[in-house]
UniProtKB/TrEMBL annotation:
<feature type="domain" description="Cytochrome c">
    <location>
        <begin position="36"/>
        <end position="115"/>
    </location>
</feature>
<keyword id="KW-0479">Metal-binding</keyword>
<feature type="signal peptide">
    <location>
        <begin position="1"/>
        <end position="25"/>
    </location>
</feature>
<dbReference type="InterPro" id="IPR051459">
    <property type="entry name" value="Cytochrome_c-type_DH"/>
</dbReference>
<keyword id="KW-0408">Iron</keyword>
<dbReference type="InterPro" id="IPR036909">
    <property type="entry name" value="Cyt_c-like_dom_sf"/>
</dbReference>
<dbReference type="Pfam" id="PF13442">
    <property type="entry name" value="Cytochrome_CBB3"/>
</dbReference>
<dbReference type="InterPro" id="IPR009056">
    <property type="entry name" value="Cyt_c-like_dom"/>
</dbReference>
<keyword id="KW-0349">Heme</keyword>
<keyword id="KW-0732">Signal</keyword>
<protein>
    <submittedName>
        <fullName>Cytochrome c</fullName>
    </submittedName>
</protein>
Length: 140
């Protein structure tokens, strides 16, 4: 025990036991477990979103709070879910390297027109491309 306390104290002081200030959810590529090929919004929702946001999109509360997508007024602007899907938010992983622009548009349009949401101004792949931050892989 005498040895453990100084090591623990040194680790805490060095910051090795503290979470990174830049902590973000894992990349979606690691969460998805393989390539995503569907361009159908409902299928993408079932594959990628339903596990956390639930089948009814009402979210969940437990070890984390997963926001409801059902009846969510933040979805009124199509740009908001596009940004969140591309970049992640809180515990949600980012999908910028996993989904293409057409897949993200299909997923956003599905969520915005289902689960009690009635936002009919569709998002196009070009809208997603305008929000996407280029990655080093995209610049090659």
């Amino acid at each position: 025990m005498r040895f453990l306390l100084p090591v623990l104290a040194a680790s805490v002081l060095a910051g090795t036991m503290l979470p990174s200030r830049d902590a973000r959810a894992d990349a979606a590529a690691n969460v998805a477990g393989g390539p995503i090929t569907s361009h159908d919004g409902a299928t993408l929702y079932r594959q990628l979103c339903q596990g956390c946001h639930m089948a009814n999109a009402k979210g969940a509360v437990g070890a984390a709070t997963i926001p409801a997508l059902a009846g969510n007024p933040k979805l009124a602007s199509g740009g908001y879910p596009v940004y969140v899907i591309l970049n992640g938010y809180g515990a949600m992983p980012w999908f910028s390297g996993t989904l293409d622009d057409a897949q993200i548009a299909a997923l956003v349009n599905y969520v915005r027109t289902n689960f009690g949401n009635h936002y009919t101004d569709g998002v196009k792949p070009e809208d997603v491309a305008a929000v996407r931050t280029p990655t080093p892989e995209m610049e090659k």
